[in-house]
Specification:
Layout: H1 9-22, H2 26-39, H3 67-92
Length: about 90
């Protein structure tokens, strides 16, 4: 349907701000805002669902992938202790 509507200057500016932010056409933004307001929605644009694509880790059999986080923590702790020890030795000199 085609119609003429007179918008208040502040409403026009709000719509134009939304056009600039979303980089969508004025007509699309106006229809979306009216639809959202009339339906009582939150006003957010529909977002494509977040998808995770699983892929094999290439681990050798017998290796528990849950143990990798613990191994990484152990390595980080060892590196921290080693650095701390070297700094203490350098400070004593």
């Amino acid at each position: 349907m085609r119609t003429t509507v007179t918008l208040a200057p502040d409403v026009e500016e709000l719509i134009r701000d939304q056009v600039r932010r979303t980089k969508r056409p004025f007509k699309f933004v106006l229809n979306h805002l009216l639809r959202t307001a009339l339906r009582g929605n939150s006003g957010t644009d529909p977002v494509a669902p977040f998808r995770i694509e699983a892929r094999p880790l290439g681990l050798l059999s017998g290796h528990d992938p849950r143990g990798l986080a613990k191994a990484a923590d152990d390595i980080e702790a060892e590196a921290f202790l080693s650095l701390t020890h070297r700094l203490e030795e350098a400070h004593k000199s």
